[in-house]
């Protein structure tokens, strides 16, 4: 507020100062120097201007390129690795109401331009810089101050929560120590922000400068900020070295995109071709470029955009350790880059978790777009929270319940073929729940840096599959045994014994182990940042082995769903239906036998409720009959008579109570 008021108060004095530079008499000609520093060596851009080697030109003569009534000197200077200076001296023609002196401003591409006008004497445009009035200097200071404020605005990078095409820009910001806002959008947020994108796609950057607006195209954005941070080389030759390496890295990136977007049946062939032919050829060329530049960095002796691009590509090739092992020069370059830039190493360490998660997503969903991967990333965060907060409780509850079942079912008086199956199922569930919980531990922070855990994890995945498949077929055979017992009771009593149940459980386990054993050859432990400095520790992941590709090629992973999903599903559906039908038929047969053995009651027969009320009478009549029988025995009745009397007595009781 004070600066504005000061400027307003000095307006009158500024106008008075400007009026001091009144226009000359147009009827009199003026002599000015006329030359260009880029065309004439006698018109230097930075050395002392020698008036003896330059002739004055009459501004009203035909020799003047621009006829006029005063002299002009234009000084232009750019910044960056290809900076240049240009000085132009000539005659000028302007409207009469002109602010005499020097004007300072920045034009396109950040070029500084100083334009000075004079008419006080012949050859007044000879000096390197003309004296400016106090008012002009004041306005120039305000202009520079406002530009400084605009230049310090924090850029905002808009992209999804994945690496993709936005990662190189993030690396440039981190390595160039440029403070920025990393705005990672979800699919829903992108739908709202899409109208603000210059090209309708991401990434794009909001510079905070109204004169520049929004920046589009990831490659152009990375180069623009790399130039501002001094990461494009210090001269034309280094610029060429940087661009040469970047073009080679683009070729590698396009091969990876070609692989990820290919159909699933063609990926093994493309991967084999890349690892055997295209990958070694492209990486060898990259190593040659590095050696030609001196072997330290791609631009010579200083960090450049090409080194950051190489860092990004090496992370994308982390799942091909055998290929990268052939080029230790690139691994050493990665160490050198991270060791020489603490802020970049800090960013790599901070984003290691997200990179690992998204790399896994990209491997699982190679044909997904960036929007879909961002949506999957948010789902992944929700599932991670579920695994951390809820899974331990569910696993503990399941282990406790199955442990109680094991204790009860293993008692001697509980021994039976059915209980043997149930005991085996309970033990299998306990082991599976324990493995499941240990597998979910990998979502905890810091676990991805432990090599021993991932070696253990490579064994826990196939073990979990083994016991899951074992429980599936245990359930199938248990259902089959129940059907046999119900449908063929005599046959079931003979063959569904405890010893046969033990043998069946053992055979099922061995058969499941035979079909699941190839899973133990599927995984290997990969290190993404192995050998880096302490600021960027090694990040471990599970990768696929060559055996996995062979098994996939020969259809092993098509056989597994048939044996352990669709086959058991059909088996259970058939035998459960037969079991239910057998139970229904047995119940009907029992009712028919009961109806045949017990005659229909006459109308005078008491209702069931009355029969139930007469049960106490039956309990009384039975001991009374026994007493009477004992009395008869004491009376000396013969045995034959006693038996006849007893039968008559029971007949009367049956007739009375139905």
TrEMBL record:
Its primary localisation, in coarse terms, equals membrane
Extract one GO BP annotation from the record: sleep
**Does the record bear Nuclease in its keywords?**
no
Could you name the domain of life of the organism this protein comes from? Answer: Eukaryota
What molecular functions are annotated in GO for this chain? G protein-coupled receptor activity; glutathione transferase activity
Q: Where is the GST C-terminal domain?
A: 235-357
Annotated GST N-terminal domain residues: 153-233
Task: List UniProt keywords, sorted A-Z.
Answer: Glycoprotein, Membrane, Signal, Transmembrane, Transmembrane helix
Provide the protein's localization. Answer: Membrane
Q: Per the record, GO CC terms?
A: membrane
Q: What InterPro entries does the record tag this protein with?
A: Glutathione-S-Trfase_C-like (IPR010987), Glutathione-S-Trfase_C_sf (IPR036282), Glutathione_S-Trfase (IPR040079), Glutathione_S-Trfase_N (IPR004045), GPCR_Rhodpsn (IPR000276), GPCR_Rhodpsn_7TM (IPR017452), GST_C (IPR004046), GST_superfamily (IPR050213)
Q: Which SUPFAM superfamilies match?
A: Family A G protein-coupled receptor-like, GST C-terminal domain-like, Thioredoxin-like
This chain's function reads: GST isoenzymes appear to play a central role in the parasite detoxification system. Other functions are also suspected including a role in increasing the solubility of haematin in the parasite gut.
State whether it acts alone or in a complex, and with which partners, per the record. Answer: Homodimer.
Family listed? Belongs to the GST superfamily. Mu family.
* Annotated protein name in UniProt: Glutathione transferase
- Give the organism, scientific name: Macrostomum lignano
Upper classification of the organism: Eukaryota, Metazoa, Spiralia, Lophotrochozoa, Platyhelminthes
